[in-house]
Amino acid sequence: MDEIVGFTKVSDDFYIPLSFRGKETFQQSEGIVLAGDVGGTKTNLALFHFKEDTLKSIKQESFKTNDWTSFLELMASFQSNDLPAIDSICLGVAGPVIDGKVEGTNFSWELDEKEIARALKGERVSIINDMEANAYGLSVLAKKDLVEIKEGAWMRGNAAIISPGTGLGEVGLYWDGAHYHPFASEGGHCDFSQRSELDLRLWRFLQKKYGQVSWERIVSGPGIVNIYEFLLEDKKIPEPESWKNKLNDGDSAAAISKCAKDESFEICREALELFNVYLATEAAQMALKFKALGGIFIGGGILPKIIDMVDKDVFLHHFVQSDKMNTLLEKIPVNVILNDESPLLGAAFCAARNLPKK
């Protein structure tokens, strides 16, 4: 990552003008910002020099979150004597942020703005939801960073992002007539809604396993594994012994995705197909709840890796499926975000929001 300029075009006739909690531009601000994207699988940190709405990279590093007992322990490893002093920090964290504090949803850390500020000897520390950071990251996307999987008309109106990863992140963007205002959501933990007999059988399978069945149990990396295990039981198909070893060696969801591409075990392909069906279904639910005429964006690390396996016709069929609102859903474009640094860059611009004027 070299220089990143904010507030760029998404297409020839569509911008995503964002309000960073009351600020739309920071051209008079300058300083060193630390951005963090803290998730259940990995934590990305980056140090930037910010000047005239532009980020210039100083240092960037990725860590396995569960290898560390706390953010401050990880931060001690990231820092070194040759790095400049930090003027502002913003961390996008996977979990509900309340009064500057958050407990990780799929990892054991607790983060507190005041504690981090004391430890790092700085006053300007903000913690936001990781999906809110993802939404702010839309300000730096270009058209090449998006892949359309459902056509629609770019219109001014509310928008939303759904991000399958270690968990299922969801965030809304309210349109005030001039700018978008991201707001955090924990919609991925809402109950899974069934449409078919197959869905009911999947729900029963997961209800025995977890009790309550949320969308995150299905539309996520672990959700791919859940769907795969359900299909094995539902179809009463034994796993090949050679495949069992691959599945248990590391990232099971990634192994299933690779198997689906290789077509080495039919159940893997079917699991990915069902995952895409349920992603389309929940994306449509968000589109209706937020009246997201500004579009649905799909973030996270899963879709970019399997984008060539997404059947657009199947996605369209399950997205545009409502008792009374099909006409509305037909208008809404759905795009996959290919730039996996979007949440980190969004956090960096949020950190810049707190820089003093020079």
Give a description of the structure.
- The chain has 358 residues and is of the alpha/beta class.
- It is built from 12 helices and 16 strands.
- It has a 6-stranded mixed sheet with strand order 1-6-5-4-7-10, sandwiched between helices. Strands 11-16-15-12-13-14 form a 6-stranded mixed sheet, sandwiched between helices. It has a two-stranded antiparallel ribbon with strand order 2-3.
- Strand 12 and strand 13 form a beta hairpin.
- The model is unreliable at 8-14 (pLDDT under 50).
SSE blueprint and pairings:
Elements: E1 3-5, E2 9-11, E3 14-15, E4 30-38, E5 42-51, E6 54-64, H1 71-78, E7 88-93, E8 101-103, E9 110-112, H2 113-119, E10 125-129, H3 130-136, E11 146-150, E12 159-164, E13 168-175, E14 180-185, H4 197-210, H5 221-235, H6 241-247, H7 252-262, H8 266-290, E15 296-298, H9 303-306, H10 312-319, H11 326-331, E16 334-337, H12 342-353
Parallel strand pairs: 4-7, 7-10, 12-15, 15-16
Antiparallel strand pairs: 1-6, 2-3, 4-5, 5-6, 8-9, 11-16, 12-13, 13-14
Helix pairs in contact: 3-12, 4-5, 5-7, 5-8, 7-8, 8-10
